[in-house]
Amino acid sequence: MKTGLVSITFRQLEPAEIVNLCVVNNLAAIEWGGDVHVPPGDLEKAMEIRALTEAAGLKVAAYGSYYFLAGSASKNRHAFETILESAVALGAPLIRVWAGAKGSDKATEEDWQTAIADSRRIGDLAAKRGLKVAYEYHQGTLTDTTHSAVRLIKSVDHAAVSSFWQPPNGAELENCCEGLKQVINLNKLSSVHAFHWWPEFKDRHPLSAGVERWKKYLALVHEYEQKTGGSERYVCLEFVKDDEPENLANDAQTLHQMLAEIEHEYEVAE
How far lies 32's CA from each of 73, 85, 198, in Å? Predict the structure, then answer.
């Protein structure tokens, strides 16, 4: 596992400031957001951000788009093709997309079939350019429960389509672990967004307050990495307490410490 930062954590900062935060906190990569930092269609900006990232010795982990699967056209400001061109210019290996704009409890069978068809369409488009796409694991979409996320991934069954993972708000530890295991068992885990909201999204805490939970999540991912031989998979910090840049240092330190402890425990067990 490699560490990173989701740029929308600090929408108020310029890209150079975000790059500097990653360097100072020994984070290896950035998932650049498409709403502020790398607007879709601005290829010059995307290439500029790529150069800035690479010059600092960092990787582009993903392009965080705000593309919603077909059937949610009113949510989309840009066609997927436009987003894809920006992702290529940015040097992103992966594009984050949203699994529609309806929760699984409100989606009709037509909504499901439309989302499945569009997933395959954008998966084909991305694959032709050497990229992949991955769903945001989020409430209010078709990945808002373990059951619905697994159904979508299995139904789409596309080599270039996978899923991010993050703990659902307010869910019990056992349920979170089970959801993560199921995505892992499908061999469809792209990367992880790490933050500690408890019990609701408005209750944002330092990552250190969620170490008990996060060590279990990361241990599952680490075991998966060992079995599959590793990959370009990232654990990207997101949503620090109060959205303040100075709070990133503690979260980064906590993440590094957890990963080091998990690696040590794994080596001892062997």
Answer: 23, 14, 25
**CB-based contact 189:162 (threshold 8 Å):** yes
Q: pTM of the predicted model, to two decimals? A: 0.96
Do residues 49 and 25 lie in contact, with contact meaning Cβ atoms separated by under 8 Å?
no
8-state DSSP, 7: G
Q: Nearest CA to 182 among 210, 159, 152?
A: 152
Q: What is the pLDDT of residues 30-54, one digit of tens each?
A: 999 999 999 999 999 999 999 999 9
Tokens of 259: 């990963």
Q: What is the DSSP string of 31-96?
A: EEETTTTS-TT-HHHHHHHHHHHHHTT-EEEEEEEEEE-TT-GGG-SS-HHHHHHHHHHHT-SEEE
Contact 134, 94 (CB under 8 A): yes
Query: Mind listing the domains of the chain with CATH numbers?
Result: 2-269 (3.20.20.150)
